[in-house]
Here is the input.
Amino acid sequence: MKNKTYSLFSLALAAALFTACSDDDSSTNNSNENTNKTFTIAVIPDTQNMTDFTHQSSYQVSEGVNFPIDASTQFYGMMEYIANNTVTRGGDIAFATSVGDIWQHQTEILDPEHEARGFAHDPYTIIANSGEVFPSQETVNFEMPLAKAGYELLSQTGIPFGVAPGNHDADAMWSEASFESDPTRLEEIYTLGLIPEIVGMLHIGGHDNFNSVFGAESSFFKDKPWYISSYNGGANSAQTFEAAGYTFLNISFEMQPGDDVLAWAQSVIDANPGLPTMITTHDYLKENGLREANPIIDLTVVDAENHNSAEDLFQKFIKPNDQIFMVLCGHHHGKAMRIDTNNNGNQIIQVLADYQDRGQTVLDADPNFRNAHGSTYGIGDGWLRLMEFNFENDTPQIEVKTYSSHYNSFSDELNTYANWYKESENPSATDNEFYGLDSFTITLEDFKTRFN
Here is the structure.
């Protein structure tokens, strides 16, 4: 649930970015009059609740009660919408990037590499017994094939795209034994929050499942000229795409990447100097706009040798590389946006979008259907982010829109939008403020001077 600080933070940023700034009017490599000066990037948020095998009508939630919808149709519909609106099919989507958590479940409790390094699963923590994290063969039978079929729709269009793995896409996710929980303090989570000392700490390992679908040798990326580099089998990857007369670079990172990953990424940037570069990763920006991890799945605390925090990633890699102008992420339930300056004084735009908690589509099917805690099932409702870049004027802009392929509507066109989601996401915001969090303009103040 979002707090008042987040609402004010995001709204202040959004309002400030509506103010246009003058910019250098020197010629750039998009000066060809015949070049289309606008294009869209589709940002695919966490889709795990749509691909979850327990969120399908064939799944029996309790004796005699099945789940009321097939959430998989929302995932497939989202991918179909993106595919149908690509530039190769007469639309304006030139690139798509996924922030991870594509499917929900793992196939192992503990992967062999981490077990060999001394990690262990504690089955007695609150997290381990919550029913939220468990390995399942249905990951291989249902969730991964569904994900592959959805992305095949996108692949068939021929446009470049990138996919970053999330924690749920790992082979294993377990409650790490070195962090003991204390169930006698459970009531304290309402004042202290979900902290490892009470509920335990999660860790993840292995990318075999992810790489089997989205790896460098997969049919999606093998021999594609725009798929220019990869690391750890494709858990980290780099793509280029052409739009508005520019060549853009996107680097997709695994969750909280280690120094070896950053060294690989630096080699990619060094081999492609001057390209406007985006970073896509899973865990980076929280819903309050801070670069902080969820305290119960902070890989840098469990395994600092092999992971960097979001702030480390920003300070060590993003801030020193002037050609990185934007970072996209998911993982934290909600949305946020902030702009910082890099070591050269230029913009770094950072955007979070994750709609997995939204479950109006379940209520549409059955208004009384709730989970064991009395809450609505989070599905996603087909919401995704569309970022339209406009280079027609001296100072380029990005129009950020939020669209539901299920409801066939943009957020600011749906008069029930605030009624459905505001109370659980931003209760302190006015309706107009809430709409503004999902529909706003970013001014690219220094883009043309940086990438002349």
Notes: Confidence is low (pLDDT under 50) at residues 1-32.
